[in-house]
Amino acid sequence: MSKLLLHGGKRLNGEIEISAAKNSYLPILAASVLCEEKIILHNYPCYTDTENMCEILKSLGAKIEKNNDNLVIDASSLSEYSIESALAGQVRSSIFMLGALLGRFKKAKVAYPGGCEIGARPIDIHLSGFRRLGVKVEEKHGFILCDAKNMTSASLLLEFPSVGATESLMMASVLTSGQTKILNAAQEPEIVDLQNFLNKMGADVRGAGTSEIVINGVKKLHGCEFSPIKDRIIAGTYLIATAMCGGDVLIKGVNFHYLQAIVDKLDKTACLISHKNDKIRVISDGKPKAFGKIETAVYPGVPTDLQAQLMALATICEGSSMIVENVFESRFKHVPELIKMGADIHVKDRVSVVHGVKHLYGAPVTGLELRGTASLVLAGLVAEGYTIVSGVKHIDRGYHRIEEELSGLGADIRRIED
Ligand code: EPZ
Fold this sequence. Notes:
single chain; alpha/beta; UDP-n-acetylglucosamine1-carboxyvinyl-transferase, Chain; 4-stranded mixed β-sheet; 14 helices; binds ligand EPZ
């Protein structure tokens, strides 16, 4: 079982090239089954979530090969339209396969998805969207069974701008004749990336990045090459790590505007942030001031996927901070572990109040979900003494060899097997 051993107190200095976005790659991998010609995706990031998604595609009959950091997908001989729970239960993104399989085969049988345990993770918005498109949806024995032989285009309003539901419905509609509109659509950069990928394959999708997406169905899609965007959450994680540790780090490859919401909060309180083209420079004296109140929200608000990392920062800020988690109902699992390290945090429902302390102390802590485990690593970078972080399998879902990236910046961190 892997663990991460950290010795706190090192400053971070140097440059880091950010890898491709997990939450872009996952829907794009799903969407690749819509095409019967070869797809080449660049900068493949070896996260366990993307690896699991590749296994799902192979289980359907797709051929996948990796050469250097490209992924070549050939879904021409796809034979299967059903995904068992052993695979579907590994990742949340198996739910995206529903839309993609309906687009390709007009039928699908997918076991309930897995994903980080940060709430109930219902799929009602996905399923009500499919029903609005004329898909017959049944849920039984742990599977979602869809019959889309009568699928039509339609105008559908999402009751919440769900990222996954927006992506799933985009995929289901690109090969359906007529015009489909998705209103109250999610506006995350990864949705725009999916639109760009679908259009590169010959689809006709407009409006991603706004609350209204319009899809004009086309008959067939063709092969293409595509480079998904870089991971804004990983970039935000290293920006926050530098604000905590002190130092001078150049973060390369990410569009600065994707991080505007947290930059507005951290610049001049926790660190100094500047940017030029796709490079973001963060400088910190390692004595951050509290950033006041932060509320997570859908894009372009403060991302829920950076909430845990911001809380780690808040624990050592001078002053008190308030963090409100508005997107998921159970995303404070990192709090008891941070308290074990000496943090002063009080939680009631979705509100946490964090009083900054002079020091955190190294301790054995356990990560329970992806971003919460990242927050424990950040805390270990500044804690006095040694910290051992268990639950590394969670962090490997969305960061590739985080210990190598952080030690490349000067952190004292390594992976140990026990
Ligand atoms: C995506 O999850 C991301 N995962 C999550 O990243 C991210 O936190 C989330 O979007 C929000 O930005 C991937 O893209 C693979 P949602 P998703 O549907 O699609 C409720 C990470 O750490 N909801 O926008 O599951 C839901 O319960 C992961 O990288 C319904 O009620 O998020 C939640 O409260 C974690 N019914 C809210 O909407 C539904 O049918 C947002 O969920 C769907 C969602």
